Amino acid sequence: DLQICQHRAPTCCTKKMEESYQAAVRRERTQSIQALNFELKYMIVGHITAFQEAFESLLRFAENRTSSLFETAYRPMAKEAAEPVKELFTDISLYILGAETTVESAVLRFFDSLFPLVYSRLINPGITDLSQDYTECLRLTRQDINPFGHYSKNMVTELSKSLWASRMLSQALSLGIEVINTTEHAAVSKECSRALVRMQYCPHCQGLTLIRPCVGYCLNVMRGCLASVSELDAQWREFISTLEYLTNEMAASHDLETALSGIWSSINEAILHAQLNGPQLSATVDKVCGQPKQQEGNLSSANLVPVKEVTETQTFVMAHTSLSNKRREFINYMKRSRTFYASIAERLCDGDLVMRDSSTCWNGEDVV
């Protein structure tokens, strides 16, 4: 009553043993693919972690540098500016990790929050009544009178280019993990499990427990079983090419490190621009929002304060080098995995599964 290991010679197998063998080959195939996937998945997961750690280090550096700008050059508004600065860098972090937001909305929201502070603390430092309505009016007016000139738009452009490549790379790495996980749990068809039993366990029914499959036979069986997985080959190659493109973009014109480290400078230029155009801005704001209460004597002489360069360069250089090295190592490894899905049958038939150093092997029917 055997269904798979039928043979003209006497056998020591039963139908129940064949069923056990089918369960065994399903389990073994999943474990074999998991073992092959492990190194690739470990490399991708490791890079995601290293990328996020280096990115967070750069982000903290850029945030500290921006906070220091306010503390050294714009002390009157430093305390109140802390929250908008924190929100800006949180939004940037969320954007890179794939949140439904844009760089433009994050940057413009920051400048909306910044304008009331610049106006009331630097341009007109005598203002005492900064009510909620007046603050909101200043926020809305910012969009119309553009007090920060082209600097706010330039910051959007620069950050959008560099952060886009980082966001795409982050999403691509997550997609890679998803693909690998899916292939580990691809269903084994009935025909495949029967072919695997015939290849691996039918010799046992003849008492031939030391005879292993012939190489060519193993490749034919595995290719048939893995046809659906090997169909990923073209897409996987394209995926590797995309990763290569993104890492090159990040290292070239879309340099994340340079863009993040330049945020404080863009904000400084924007504030200086607003201060230099203070009288015109005041005239427009007075028409739109009305005149707020002022202290006796305007303190506008506290305006332009020279910026002290923040000395945290060593931290930045280390994070920058770490990120560059990780990117290089990672893409070199991924390029070697370009044929991963095309050669999966060959890799499964490698090692102990097949007979390589002997003249006798199992061809599915007999020892040859």
UniProtKB/TrEMBL annotation:
Cell location: Cell membrane
Membrane-topology annotation of the record: Lipid-anchor; GPI-anchor
Keyword S-adenosyl-L-methionine found: no
The keyword Repressor appears for this protein: no
Pfam families registered for this protein in UniProt: Glypican
GO cellular component, as recorded: cell surface; extracellular region; plasma membrane; side of membrane
Family as reported in the entry's similarity comment: Belongs to the glypican family.
Task of the protein: Cell surface proteoglycan.
Protein name: GPC5 protein
